[in-house]
Predict the 3D structure of the following.
Amino acid sequence: MLIVMEKEASDEDIRGVVAKIEALGYVAQPIPGGERTAIGILRNPGPVDPALFVDLPGVQEAIPVSRPYKLVSREMKRADTIVEVTGGVKIGGGHFVVMAGPCAVESEAQALTIAQAVKAAGAQIFRGGAFKPRTSPYSYQGLEEEGLKILAQVRAATGLPVITEAIDHHSLDLVEEYADIIQIGARNMQNFSLLRRAGQARKPVLLKRGMSATLDEFFMAAEYILSEGNTQVILCERGVRGIGSHARNTLDLAAIPFVKRESHLPIIADPSHAAGRRLLVAPLARGAVAVGADGLMIEVHHDPAHALSDGPQSLYPDQFATLMQDIAALRPGQWS
Ligand code: PEP
Ligand code: MN
């Protein structure tokens, strides 16, 4: 249930509605809007009777929310959420953003070389993993805090905000301290305690879709973050398990317009982890832009043959620059 307040409703009216919700044993979540405040009712086990609210002072209407996810749904919030990143970068609501960089931060020189190349091509955010969730325990696990320090140096040198993944509570504390966006990876999409911790963070969160997750499960994962008070969430479609071996995963392009209809949160696409091979990255990226993605996350490496992680799917800097031009053609005025 969503209680929509009148434009003229006073703070006291809002407090009255919140008190009524709490007296019923539920949780009230005020959602300030441009013109009026709405108050979401959460943790109600069954339907709530609108008659309990419609006659309270300042209440305009009580709208039942039919979806199991509440705070992420367009029923609760009609306007697109615009996520604001340090440095004035905005994502969503027409603001399109490309995040690019290596799968893993390997050294200061490697990160800086790639950051300068992707910045020159027009990327607005630098990506690079410091804590790597690898399928094999024998694969490269990342530079950990040392990698975060390198990311902070890259930001200082290039002015690009940085995004990096947190894989557990300890790394999330560190990522929150050093980075501009906290990434929760596909493998942790249903790590509910980590999602709650991300919801308490004071930085935006990029949540990747689990490799076998339905969209309802994806929305519910985002709901965990919002329900802790962090509304700055970017969703990311990165491919789900498919059939055949032509691609590592299947980029679910249909998910992008569907998510945009169901949710106010921005959704970007990661064609790199979907493709698993360089050949497929640019076509999938262009497809994602064409179906309305709010941005892209692309892996780029200046020496992919020697990359410590995901070299086969990393674009060379010149391929990335060409892709950026193609995107600008699909979104006229994008980099002008
Ligand atoms: C990544 O972005 O480095 C990554 C591990 O992605 P995913 O969680 O989508 O596999
Ligand atoms: Mn990777």
User: Anything to note?
Assistant: The pocket of phosphoenolpyruvate (ligand 1) is lined by residues 103, 129, 133, 165, 185-187, 208, 238, 270, 273 (CB under 6 Å). Residues 108-121 form the longest helix (14 residues).
